Amino acid sequence: MPAKRYIGLLRGINVGGNKKVPMADLREMMASLGFENVKTVLASGNVAWDADSDDTDAMQSRIEAAIQSKFGFNVPTQVIPQTQVDALITRDPFAGIEITADTRLYVTFLPQAHSPSFEVPYHAPTGDFTILSVAPTDVCSVLTVSSTRSIDAMAILETEFGKGITTRNWNTVLKIAKL
């Protein structure tokens, strides 16, 4: 089987000085697991690699165990095929959204498919957070930060979709796709 490209999304590292994982150390650790062509982008826990396996659950377990062993703490990780990120970009979920200095576009990656308890698009009562779409693998949302902190929007997402989610801004997703 030819190697396929995968993306690892590590949750909650290098935030506010907590759970520090230097990207060079992460790349080295990933290579030690036998993954090839390992690349990272930003310090927020985005890593890509090539592997001959189709078993994303096994890769996730191996990566989480290696992080625990190397760095001494648990880091929930989602492993997704590069093709999933490519399909998301092709879908262009934010087409037509007016972007201002206060606009933030987010993609929340779901560890498993989840049907929301609300109608989509969902508009928060405050009017500054909208969930545009919910797909089996992701949730696309827009936040206006002039009146709400992103942490408030993340609380809405975690309440609805669970603590196992991980969120990236759209610009980061675009960078991940180029890894």
How many strand elements? 9
Largest sheet: 5 strands, antiparallel
Overall geometry? globular
Please give the share of residues in helix.
25-40%
List the domain count as a whole number. Answer: 2
Structural class, please?
Answer: alpha+beta
> Strand-and-helix sequence, N→C?
EHEEHEHEEEEHEH
Strand residue percentage: 25-35%
Mean pLDDT: 92
Radius of gyration: 16 Å
Strand order of the largest sheet: 6-7-8-5-9
Number of helical segments with 4 or more residues = 5
Flag low-confidence runs. none
Termini, distance in Å? 21 Å
Q: What labels describe this entry?
A:
179 residues, alpha+beta, Alpha-Beta Plaits, 2 domains, 4-stranded antiparallel β-sheet, 9 strands, 31% helix
Description:
There is one protein chain. By secondary structure, the protein is of the alpha+beta class. The protein folds into two domains: 4-84, SP0830-like domains (Alpha-Beta Plaits); 93-177. The protein is built from five helices and nine strands. The chain has helices spanning 23-32, 56-71, 82-91, 150-161, 170-177, and strands at residues 4-10, 36-40, 46-51, 77-81, 103-109, 122-123, 129-134, 138-144, 166-169. The strands form two sheets. The chain has a five-stranded antiparallel sheet with strand order 6-7-8-5-9. The radius of gyration is 16 Å and the shape is globular. The model has no long low-confidence stretch (mean pLDDT 92).
